[in-house]
Design goal:
238 residues, rod-shaped
Length: 238
Amino acid sequence: MARFCPNCGTEVDETAVFCPTCGQPIDQEAEAEIPPAPAWPDPPERNDRADDQPGRPAEPTDAEPWTNSDDAQPARADEPTRVEPAPPPAAAPPPTSTAAQPPAESGNRRQPQSVSLPVTWPVTLSAWLIGGGTVVAAVGVVVGLFRGPINPIDLLLVLLLLAIAVTVFFAASVPAIPHLRMATMVVVLIGLGIAIDRIGFGAAGIGELLLFLGTAAAAMGCILLELGRDQPLGGPTR
């Protein structure tokens, strides 16, 4: 008689005391025999009505198998085969081109930066007389330089007259100069004396005439400033 291990079910020898697989001691009295094979299932019962009437076939059941209408009705040879229309292709997005973009609005254009010159426009009558007179006098001296040999006194006078004009029209950029009013009056009176000398005792030309008019106007501005009679360009203030 075959013997089996009660723990793991391994078949062992009849004289074995322990299971060679799991080491479980085998009890002679508690040996498990081979279980009997299961019985063969009984055949299904036949319908009594079918047995009574062997020539009559069995009635079909109520449940009918589901069939597809398309498969149940095959297409005939003379009918055209139905073709499913293909979906239309997706519209391609329009190409984005930066070169074809219109120019930016005129309002977004960068405004040109205005260049601010450090020019100080005079606001008083004496300043206009001194600044404008020295410029005219300097032009007259330059015109006289081209008619004969260059005189060093004329070159020095031109530089002094232009320096006075710079202190008037570029007052914000010029540092404070001590005794500027006195030096301006001295240079203007010297230039006026030179112009009177050349007009009265020499050959007077356009250069001498411009020198006389310019220094005379500048001298009038210096006198008004020293006497305290200077007035703004808008008229006297009350």
